[in-house]
Structure formats: structure tokens, C-alpha cells
Amino acid sequence: MSSGSGKESLLASLDKLKAAVGNGDCEEVPAIMQQILAECPSIADGKSILEPIIKPFYDLMQLEQPPEGFMGAFSEDKKYAKLCEDFINLRAFLLSLANGDLSQKLQMKGYLAGVLKAFQANLKHMIWQTKMIAEGDFSRRVHFLGEFSTSFNSMVEQLNQARKKLQESEKRFRSLAVTDALSSLPNRRHFFQLAKAEFSRAKRYNTVLSIIMLDIDYFKAINDTYGHATGDMVIRVVAEQMRKAIRESDTPCRYGGEEFIVLLPQTELAEAEPVARRIKDYIQNQNVHFDGKEVQVTASLGVSCSGGAGRPDADTQGETLDDVLKRADKALYVAKESGRNRVVIADPEIG
Asked: What is the DSSP string of 233-292?
């Protein structure tokens, strides 16, 4: 069938359809419509009458760049041109989403546009949630995008658990770094950190601090006689009794070997001395029982104070923490040389 005869046949069929509709012929109308649909694909040299309209949209979907003049002969039709414009806007919007640019606006309306805009809004919200998580807020969860949200929330929960474990490990390692493993008291390193800070504060505010140095009597003999396991038990018992005897504001530390030290902030010698005597008594009254053996434990203690307390003629301007420690150490030496199991004050004016 030629192009001209095909068009004439189509026009004749349309006239029949119009007449059948006007006459209300319910049986004739479907038959004529089937005839028209059968004739349409053969019009225009065997090509579908819809092909010039369909092809531009296939081009928009399949080609990276639409060909020039892709709208073809129908470009002058305003509704068709608007449809092509919406399709181009849709391409640009989807391309921006694919490239991670969520700032693009979709210049069209309708159900499909609403769905895509909602998807864009969900992605924006998820980016915000991710930023909050990156800043440490692991309470965020998402409840959209179905299975993706489930996977995302599972990932956040796993990250949160891993973060908590890391924090716990960090806290434990920090504690280990400043704690003596045997006595569970702060170690020598941590003592100096605390003591330097307290000494600087005392100088700045013109207050004082006291130091108690303690040495377990005859510790080498205990190790030699009862064994190192018993010696370790003695260390732990002494540490426990020190904790019981001191005040809440005081800090006991293991200084090294069988030596211990106590930092007493804002404490005069007159206040530090009874603390030292209480420590001595607690240790003396707590015998160590280990492996069926009873070990009598005593300790010698030396006490000193910063700020020239008890030494009215002393020049305290140039005093250092090391000066206070040396005085406590000398007092401890005197305590051991004068019979052990006693407290000696570094400044004789106090008593």
C-alpha cells in the first residue's frame, strides 16, 4: 500500500469511526478501531506513525548528548516541546544524583518528579546523618530506603560498638601506664605528674603541701626468708593499709621496690604527722598470712612539708619539689637508723 492510499484509507476509517460513535453503534466502534490500529504501522512507507515521536526519547535515554534538532518535525508543538524539556531536565537531575551533586533542582512536577525529589531529600538527610556520626554522635539512625537503611544502621551500630571497645581499651591502657601492677597504686611516674602540678599550685596560691615517704622494714630479709611470693603479698598488704589510713584528698603511690610515697595537698606538717602515724599503726597491726606463714610487717616513715612550714628562717622562694623530697628522704633515713617502725619529721621545730 502506497503512502497516499494508506493515508486515504486511514481518513476513511476515521470518518467511519466518527459516524459509528455518533450513531452509538457499540459493535461497530471496536471493529473500526481495530482496523485503524492494524493500518497505522503500515503508513509512511511501512514505518510506525509514532516513530518520529518515540525516537527522540530513545535518543535522550541512550545517547550521552542528544543530537542537534532531535525533536524533529514536532518541535513547533508546544506540548511536545514541553515534554522534551521535562525529559532533558530529568536527564540532568539524574546525572547530578549519579555524580553525588544533590544541589540540582528538578524543574518539573508530577508523581515521578515527587518520587525523585523525595529520593534526593533522603540522600541529603543521610549525608547529614553521616556527618553527625563522623563528629561522634552515634545515636543517629535512618528509617528510609528499606534494606539500605537496615544495612546503614547495622554499620553504625558496629562502628559504635567498636568505638566503645576502643575507648575502654584506651582507658585501660592509660590506667596501666600510670598504675603499679603489683600494688595497684599510682606509679612513680604518675606521682611526679601529680606532685609537680600540686607544687606549682601551692607556690602560685602561697599554700603548702606535705610528703610522706615510707619504706618497709627488713623487706630483703622477708624475701630471703619467705620467698618473693610472700614479698609480693607484703607489698599488696602495705598498699591496702595505706589506702585505709590516708584521707580522701591524699594520694598514695608506689615509689619503687619496697618504698612508697604519699602526696598530701594543702597540708601542714602538723596535719601530715598524724596521717603518717596512722599509716604506721595500720601496717604494724596487720600481719601478713601467706601459705600458712605469718609475717610481722612494719614500716619507717619520713615526713616533710613545702613552703618552709616549721622552718621560719628558711628561704622558700627558690625551693623545689626535689628539696621537699630530699628532706622527706633524710627523715626516713633517720627513722630507719634510729630503730625503724617509727615516724620522723624532717623539720625538728614541729616535734
From this structure: HHHHHHHHHHHHHS-TT-EEEEEETTEEEEEEET--HHHHHHHHHHHHHHHHT--EEETT
* DSSP conformational letter for 41: G
> What is the rounded CA–CA span in Å between residue 149 and residue 165?
24
DSSP 315: -
What top-level class would CATH report for the domain 188-350? Answer: alpha beta
* 8-13-56 Cα angle (round to 5): 70
Global pTM reads: 0.56
3-19 confidence digits (pLDDT tens): 556 667 767 877 887 88
Q: pLDDT of 61-99, one tens digit each? A: 777 887 777 777 677 778 888 888 888 888 888 888 888
Q: Which residues pair with 251 in a beta bridge?
A: 263
The answer to whether 39 is a known catalytic residue is no
Instruction: Say how many C-beta atoms besides its own lie within 10 A of residue 137's C-beta.
Output: 11
> In sequence order, which ranges of the chain are alpha helices (DSSP H)?
3-23, 28-39, 51-62, 78-98, 111-134, 147-178, 188-204, 219-226, 228-245, 269-284, 321-337
Active-site residue, selected from the candidate residues 8, 147, 248, 258 = 258
The residues spanned by each domain of the chain are 3-117, 134-173, 188-350
